[in-house]
Amino acid sequence: xxxxxxxxxxxxxxxxxxxxxxxxxxxxxxxxxxxxxxxxxxxxxxxxxxxxxxxxxxxxxxxxxxxxxxxxxxxxxxxxxxxxxxxxxxxxxxxxxxxxxxxxxxxxxxxxxxxxxxxxxxxxxxxxxxxxxxxxxxxxxxxxxxxxxxxxx
Length: 153
Hints:
The protein is mainly beta.
């Protein structure tokens, strides 16, 4: 049962990602611009919790990062995440290198492992996917429950 939850989470994430933003499109391709927030630090991506043994004392854990926008099945290079420590939550904004201009197919992107190292223990805070909290975010990410990844809602 403990191995079913991560497999189910990855499956749901893959099903929700790379949604074609043009309902009239018959090619399955879309221009990735405008589908996520980009900056000089890359493009916001979504993530799932891979580690299953977290406690309030944990400072290190593994996540799986996936590009939200259509990218021909490749998440690409994962960059350092932005981590915001707040009173009730730790907001983790996964980032990937920005795509070059062009059209990409939307069959879903691979999940890339990343180890998160926090500056302080999780404590009584929740771990939250930052894609659910950026302007234009939440597209293709699992933002039900406000993007909380731990504790499992």
